[in-house]
Specification:
With 256 residues, the chain is α+β, with helices and mostly antiparallel strands. Helices cover 32% and strands 22% of the residues. The chain contains five helices and seven strands; from the N terminus they run E-E-E-E-E-E-E-H-H-H-H-H. Strands 4-3-2-1-7-6-5 form a seven-stranded antiparallel β-sheet. It is elongated and about 125 Å long.
Length: 256
């Protein structure tokens, strides 16, 4: 039975049957962005095919020689650019965009046997093909970044050496069963009590008589006698004396 770990799937991320190849002198390879107009874009030294191949976790940009008379024959590998993405080596180390055109790129090719490196310029006839080529490489870069993140999470698992808990496991913060919780409340009897009494007295003093009267409605006065209301104060006093005299006269007559 075949071991599943030894199986590496091979898939083509992108391919184009008509790509221009350009020689790039070492003097033109600098830290600055390359320029396609320095390669004489109208005169490529070869027109071949390009393929972006992923096998397992590895990726290559492979350049093939043009087909001969026999179209059914397999293409001959001309050069390849291994794309080995790491946190220190981004995609721009292997494939660089040209500053003057989005259809041209600079590749760092490497001999698989001698490990010697050189630089080759490539160009696409259609802008859409160039965009698809770059998109395929960016998708592979995202795939590698996800692998690095998964490896970092796996390495940050349980640390048996120092006995520290794993960051992936949440700590149990629940109260143990049968535990007793004691809460001590500090009460200031002197200062707080005096402060509360001052607040209550000030709130009572701030209330105006109008507000207090509004809270307890007063009964209306009894209706006055119309005849009495027309008398002057002097007449009212005299009438009151007469009433008193009449009552006193009744009392004396009764006693005699």
């Amino acid at each position: 039975m075949t071991d599943d770990a030894a199986i590496e799937l091979e898939q083509t991320l992108f391919q184009d049957q008509r790509v221009w190849f350009y020689q790039v002198p070492p003097a033109q390879v600098t830290t600055l962005s390359p320029r396609a107009d320095a390669w004489d874009p109208e005169h490529p030294f070869m027109t071949g095919a390009l393929r972006v191949l992923q096998k397992g976790d590895a990726c290559w940009v492979r350049l093939y020689e043009p087909l001969g008379a026999d179209a059914a024959a397999e293409r001959t590998l001309f050069a390849q650019c291994p794309v080995e993405i790491t946190p220190e080596l981004p995609l721009e180390v292997y494939v660089q965009d040209c500053a003057d055109s989005s259809r041209y790129f600079l590749l760092r090719v490497e001999d698989d046997t001698t490990k010697r490196r050189a630089y080759i310029g490539i160009g696409f006839a259609e802008r859409g093909s160039a965009l698809d080529f770059k998109a395929a490489l960016l998708d592979y870069v995202k795939y590698v970044h996800r692998m690095h993140e998964a490896a970092a999470l796996a390495a940050a698992g349980p640390r048996a050496a120092d006995g520290a808990p794993s960051p992936s496991k949440s700590q149990d913060l629940s109260i143990p069963k049968g535990a007793t919780i004691r809460i001590n409340l500090k009460i200031n009897s002197g200062t707080d009590g005096e402060r509360m009494r001052r607040r209550s007295s000030s709130s009572s003093a701030d209330e105006s008589p109008g507000v207090a009267a509004a809270k307890v409605p007063l009964l209306p006065p009894p209706p006055a006698d119309p005849a009495t209301a027309l008398l002057s104060p002097t007449s009212q006093a005299a009438a009151a004396v007469e009433v008193a005299d009449e009552d006193w006269g009744d009392f004396t007559s009764a006693s005699s």
